[in-house]
Amino acid sequence: MRKWIAGAALALAAMTGPALADGHASYPARPIMMMVSYGAGGATDFQARIVTMTAGNEDALGMPIAILNRPGAGGRVGWNWFATEAEADGYTLAAYNVPHFIAQSIEGGVSYSTDDFEPIANWGADPAVFVVGADSDFDSMADVVAYAKENPGGLTFSGAGLFVGHHIAALQLEKAAGVKLAYIPNNAGGAGAMRAVIAGEVLGGVNNLSDAFRAQAAGNVKILGVFDLERNAFLPDVPTMKEQGFDIDNASVNFRGVMVPKGTPQEVIDRLAEVVPTMFENKRVQSRMEAGGSPMAIMTRDEVIGMWAARQETLEELLAGL
């Protein structure tokens, strides 16, 4: 019996071992894991679980995608692991956040850059917003800036980490408003940063529109401004920073999508690039994303490659000037 089991195991290994080399027809042959560099409950985790929920369907990949959270240091922990330790076999994917990992690679001290990853597809574009507690005396960005001018360095506000979209938005606000703020990165990511605002541990926060949309719907926060070029359809009554007199562009908008490690077989990249965007286009996925206040922006692999290059150039210029 033991010999039969051993023989069966060897036969199975022989069948699945070369699956990647066989191309589209045989990949994937087993469930896939996708690493998220932020904790459970935050915007990236929340959205990643929605956009991958149809992966096991026969008209998608035919295998489920499980989410693995590796949070810490504004995403650095997860992306360092992904760049240096993850298997480039098609069974280990990751969610990317731009500008986060690009800005972090520009600042240094990490083991990754755009050269270490291969983009697959983009699912969303989530602007940063400025939030305060529901009972805050601040009702506009003018109120926030006035307080900051009267109390230099005394306006405490939270964000998901250093050189993530939240931090970039904060740096832009400091420059545009001519104030010094007390940005406090939260080790628990966007979800932790939002909890700090709701609990009154900070006077305000920069967070993702999608997280803030749900928190405002629950009556926990007020949203005072959007760090984007235009108002967002989810928050039509909330003005942009530009509308409120601050020269701030969309450099902090959080693009989210799927990537694989450099060295992943090209036939696997091609298969994923073909199928993953159709998963994002699924009506159930889009309905769940809309219900959660999560703006979608579906891009193909080629479009993401162009977006990464453009953001790299923008962020190099922006960070050099701050």
What does this molecule look like?
- The chain has 322 residues and is of the alpha/beta class.
- The protein has 2 domains: 32-126 and 253-319, D-Maltodextrin-Binding Protein, domain 2, CATH 3.40.190; 128-226, 3-Layer(aba) Sandwich (D-Maltodextrin-Binding Protein, domain 2).
- Helices cover 39% and strands 20% of the residues.
- It is built from 11 helices and 11 strands.
- The chain has helices at 2-16, 43-51, 76-84, 100-107, 141-150, 165-177, 189-198, 209-217, 266-280, 283-291, 301-320; strands spanning 32-36, 65-69, 92-98, 117-126, 128-133, 156-159, 182-185, 204-208, 221-227, 254-261, 296-299.
- A 6-stranded mixed sheet has the order 2-1-3-10-4-11, sandwiched between helices. Strands 7-6-8-5-9 form a 5-stranded mixed sheet.
- Strand 1, helix 2 and strand 2 form a beta-alpha-beta unit.
- The radius of gyration is 21 Å and the shape is globular.
- The chain starts with a helix and ends with a helix.
In short:
This protein has helices spanning 2-16, 43-51, 76-84, 100-107, 141-150, 165-177, 189-198, 209-217, 266-280, 283-291, 301-320; strands spanning 32-36, 65-69, 92-98, 117-126, 128-133, 156-159, 182-185, 204-208, 221-227, 254-261, 296-299. The chain is an alpha/beta fold and 322 residues long. Residues 1-24 have low confidence and may be disordered.
Number of helices: 11
- Radius of gyration, in Å, reads 21 Å
Query: How many domain modules?
Result: 2
Any idea of the CATH class of the largest domain?
Answer: Alpha Beta
Beta content comes to: 15-25%
Strand order of the largest sheet: 2-1-3-10-4-11
Oligomer: single chain
Low-pLDDT windows of residues: 1-24
Shape: globular
Provide the CATH superfamily of the largest domain: Bordetella uptake gene, domain 1
Order of helices and strands: HEHEHEHEEHEHEHEHEEHHEH
CATH topology grouping of the largest domain? D-Maltodextrin-Binding Protein, domain 2
SS class: alpha/beta
The helix content, as a percent range, equals 25-40%
Largest sheet: 6 strands, mixed
> What's the architecture of the largest domain, going by CATH?
3-Layer(aba) Sandwich
Mean pLDDT: 92
